[in-house]
Amino acid sequence: MQPMSDDAIQVQGVLKSYGTMLAVDDVSFNVAEGEFVSLLGPSGCGKTTTLRMIAGFTDTSGGAIRVHGREVTHLPPDKRDLGFVFQNYALWPHMTVAENVAFGLKLRRKPRDVIRSKIEEALSVTGLSGYEDRLPRQLSGGQQQRVALARALALEPQVLLMDEPLSNLDRALRVVMRRELKELQARMKMTTLYVTHDQEEALSMSNRVVIMNRGRVEQIAAPYELYENPATSFVADFVGITNFLEGTASDTQGGIVGVRLASGQMLHAQARVPVAQGGAVRALIRPERVTISATELSGPNVLAGSVALSEYFGAVLRYTVRLDSGEILRAEVHNFDNFLAGGSRVWICVLPEHLRVIPHDPRG
Ligand SMILES: Nc1ncnc2c1ncn2[C@@H]1O[C@H](COP(=O)(O)OP(=O)(O)OP(=O)(O)O)[C@@H](O)[C@H]1O
C-alpha cells in the first residue's frame, strides 16, 4: 500500500542485510503527524535496525525512507531533522544538566538568549526546572533519562525517535516515566516512533503498534485491535496470553464459521478474516473471555474438562484446565469468592463473539 504523502514518516520496503542474513525484510509502515507509533517485537526481530535506518545511523540495503515527504534514505543523520533518545542516554558527565541540554543548540550556533529560553522550556516540560546546575552523577536514573529527553526536545525535532528509552529504569519508575512521556508527547503533539520489547509500554502509549517478527511486519494496528483481533498466531501469542484450539474450518454462515476440533466437537466462532472451508485453522480466545463453571453447562461452545492447576495472583485467579479432548485451556477469573481445587470437574464456555479464527500459520 502506498503510504499517504502527508505522513511524518514513511518507510517503504526497507531492507537490511548482514551478509546473507536479512535483519530487516521488506518493512513498510507510516507514522502520521503527531502520532505515537511503537515498533514491538522480541529480541533480534529488527526493531533497532529499522529505527537506526530511519535515523541514518545504519545504511539501508533497499527501500525508501521519507520524512515529511522528503526522501532522506541516503542523507546523514543531521540532515534528517529528527530527534533521538536512545537506551544508553550518554549524557556528558562533566557537563551540568543545562550544558547537556544546550550542547546541540550550541552546535547549531543558536543565539545565546534563544538557547537560554529553550533550556528553560525543555527542563520545564520534563519536570527538571531547578536542576540546571547538577551534574549527571548527582541525578537519579529517571532524572538522567529526562535530561536526555530534554536535550532531544530542545532541538524541537519534527519527529522524535526513541529506542527503549525506559529500559534502564526500575519497574516503578518506568511506569511513572511512561505516563509522563506519553502526556508530554500528546501535549506537544510530537510525532514519535518508539522501539520497545515491552508490550505493556507499547499498548499503553501508542496510537498504533507495528509488530515485528524475524525482520518482517506481522501486523500494524491500534492496541485494542491488536489485542482483540490478532492477525497471526505470532501476534496472538506475543501480545498477552492466548488459548489456541486447533481445528478445521467448516462452512461460514452470517459471519460465523464452524471449527471442528480434533475431538470431533464443533465450535462456532466469529470469522474476521477469510478462512478456506476444510482448511486448518486456529480458534483463539483470551483467558479472561473464557467462562468456567463448576455446574454443568449445556448448549453450543461448551467444553468439559477438569482443573489441572489453579494459581492465585490476588486480583486474578488463573485456572489451567485439561479438556476431556486433551487440549489445555487457561481461564482467568477476576471476581471470585471461591477457588476450584485441582481435579474439580468444570465446564468451559467460549462464546462465538470471543473466539477468533485465523488460518493455521505453519511459521507461528
Ligand atoms: N552490525 C551487525 N552485524 C551483523 N548482524 C547484526 C548487526 N546488527 C544487528 N544484527 C542482527 O540483526 C538482527 C536484528 O537486530 P536488532 O538489533 O535490530 O534487533 P532488535 O529487535 O532491536 O533486538 P533487541 O530488542 O534485542 O535490541 C539480529 O539478529 C542481530 O543479531
TrEMBL record:
Record-level Gene Ontology MF annotations: ATP binding
Domain ABC transporter as annotated: residue spans: 9-239
Gene3D superfamilies (alphabetical): 2.40.50.100, P-loop containing nucleotide triphosphate hydrolases (3.40.50.300)
Pfam families linked to this entry: ABC_tran, TOBE_2
PROSITE patterns: ABC_TRANSPORTER_1 (PS00211), ABC_TRANSPORTER_2 (PS50893)
Listed InterPro entries: AAA+_ATPase, ABC_SmlMolc_Importer, ABC_transporter-like_ATP-bd, ABC_transporter-like_CS, Mo/tungstate-bd_C_term_dom, P-loop_NTPase, Transp-assoc_OB_typ2
SMART domains in the record: AAA
UniProt keyword terms in alphabetical order: ATP-binding, Nucleotide-binding, Transport
Cross-referenced PANTHER family: SPERMIDINE/PUTRESCINE IMPORT ATP-BINDING PROTEIN POTA (PTHR42781), SPERMIDINE_PUTRESCINE IMPORT ATP-BINDING PROTEIN POTA (PTHR42781:SF4)
Stated name of the protein: ABC transporter ATP-binding protein
